[in-house]
TrEMBL record:
Gene Ontology molecular function: FAD binding; oxidoreductase activity
Keyword terms: FAD, Flavoprotein, Oxidoreductase
Annotated source species: Streptomyces sparsogenes DSM 40356
Phylogenetic placement of the source organism: Bacteria, Bacillati, Actinomycetota, Actinomycetes, Kitasatosporales
Protein name: FAD-binding molybdopterin dehydrogenase
PANTHER family found in the cross-reference section: XANTHINE DEHYDROGENASE SUBUNIT C-RELATED
Domain FAD-binding PCMH-type stretches: 1-180
């Protein structure tokens, strides 16, 4: 299929892009790598009257560790850039982010798709969105009214809906602290497909004993979610299996063509325990 007619605009800088978005209003969409938006347009699931292309804004393509040890990723950085980042670029304790890239689609998608595009798209099964929720990422957005930082817990509103205003552009994602004992895993019918369920954990451990941990799930609600009930099990010294059971009991996943709610709960039990074991082994 082909998209509905639209007008194409190529931005020269961030300020020009946000001004154009403010002028065009709700009929405009930002495009970067286009790996999500173009597919939706081809199926007529999205029909923007205007596309504002920010793909040439090289200032938004960067990856590195800041002065305070935080990982800063420009919105136009591709998944493949993160996947192939050197230890110096990625910094110590962020291996979970690089390793998670292998779950994203196939190589052509990872080569063209951008970190900011995935975050702004807000897919409940997206690996980047799950990592942001798990690791308390902050989103730096810029618009006509200036720049603001949005914590991950306030960024995702529901299916494909985020806190970004129509005239704002996501310019950077900041992961504020290392997560040396974290892991992400998921299940899809075929490698590269969207995950039916994904699970990620971040353990606070001395290598032998788990003191506490964070547990997050994707594909079980309208957006990625933390699971306090499972985290409480880890804080109380419970087993990884008990943590996984608590995670499955705490959520009410949907049933659809990809699997029933019962099936998704079964996947949660398997994936959370697996993620805990992988995180512990780092």
């Amino acid at each position: 299929m082909k998209p509905a007619p639209f007008r194409y605009h190529r931005a020269r800088d961030v300020e020009g892009a946000t001004a154009l978005l403010a002028e065009l209003g709700d009929d405009a969409k930002v495009i970067a790598g286009g790996q999500s938006l173009v597919a939706m347009m081809n199926f007529r699931l999205a029909r923007p009257a205007h596309l504002v292309d920010i793909g040439g804004l090289r200032e938004l393509d960067h990856l590195g560790v800041g002065a305070d040890g935080e990982l800063r990723i420009g919105a136009l950085t591709t998944h493949h850039t993160v996947e192939t980042a050197s230890p110096r670029e990625l910094g110590a304790g962020f291996d979970v982010i690089r390793d998670a890239m292998a779950w994203i689609g196939h190589l052509p998608i990872r080569t063209r798709g951008t970190v900011g595009g995935s975050m702004a798209h807000g897919d409940a099964t997206a690996e980047w969105c799950l990592l942001a929720v798990l690791l308390d990422a902050e989103f730096v957005a810029r618009g006509p009214r200036g720049q603001r930082r949005i914590p991950a817990r306030e960024f995702f509103f529901g299916y494909y809906t985020t806190a970004l205003d129509p005239d704002e552009i996501l310019v950077e994602i900041v992961f504020p602290r290392p997560a040396p004992h974290a892991a992400l895993t998921e299940f899809a019918e075929r490698r590269g497909d969207f995950a039916i369920v994904s699970a990620a954990v971040d353990l606070d451990t001395d290598g032998r004993t788990v003191n506490s941990g964070r547990v997050a799930l994707g594909g079980v609600a309208a957006m990625p979610v933390r699971v306090p009930e499972a985290e409480a099990v880890l804080a109380a010294g419970g087993s990884f299996r008990d943590c996984a059971e608590a995670a499955a009991d705490a959520v009410d996943p949907p049933g659809d063509a990809n699997g029933s709610a019962h099936y998704r709960k079964h996947l949660i039990r398997t994936l959370v325990e697996r993620a805990c074991e992988e995180a512990m082994s780092r």
